[in-house]
Amino acid sequence: MLTVLTIPTSAQAAGVACGGGASTGRVSVNGCISAERQWFGDVPYREVTAYIKLHNTGPRAVAVSFEAEKSRNGGPWKKVGNSRTTVGAGQTLGPTAVGSDTEFCDGQKVVVRVHAKAAGGGWSNWSQASTKQCQT
């Protein structure tokens, strides 16, 4: 259920994988993740970034609040970021970085999840994406 999107900014850009969707009103929500490899001396680690992708299917712009959490190897959830934006009528935004955290490159599964709340609506269900990799 993961789709890999490539961001064409540079050869160094990390791949972004998006998970299944959720919705809040007329706004669909997808959680996405990247894990860009870094080095601390001889020790590899990954900068895990949570992204959100939003699509407004309605005829008017809508204000949307969103937040992201991260879990390592099935452990507790940790908030990594939140923000808000306006999504125009019929517009798709993202993937947009919500927050990031550092993890060792040890093959452990890292899961991010995002949810959103359109103005006047309730919070969507969580949309998750995960990785075990350290990408370059």
Explain how this protein is built.
By secondary structure, the protein is mainly β. It is built from no helices and 9 strands. The strands form 2 sheets. A 5-stranded antiparallel β-sheet has the order 1-2-3-4-7, with no helix packed on it. Strands 6-5-8-9 form a 4-stranded antiparallel β-sheet, with no helix packed on it. Strand 2 and strand 3 form a beta hairpin. The N terminus is likely disordered.
Strand and helix order: EEEEEEEEE
**What Rg is obtained from the alpha carbons, in whole angstroms?**
15 Å
- Envelope shape: elongated
Spatial gap, N to C terminus:
22 Å
Reported for the largest beta sheet, the result is: 5 strands, antiparallel
Structural class label: mainly beta
As laid out across the biggest beta sheet, the strand order is 1-2-3-4-7
> For this entry, what is the oligomeric state of its chains?
single chain
Q: What's the tally of helices? A: 0
The counted number of beta strands is 9
If you average the pLDDT, what whole number results? 87
Q: What percentage of amino acids are in beta strands?
A: over 45%
- Percent of residues in helices comes to under 10%
Stretches where pLDDT falls below 50 for ≥5 residues?
1-13
Q: How would you briefly describe this protein structure?
A:
This protein is mostly beta strands. The chain has strands at about 5, 15-25, 25-40, 45-55, 60-70, 80-85, 90-105, 110-120, 125-130. It is built from no helices and 9 strands.
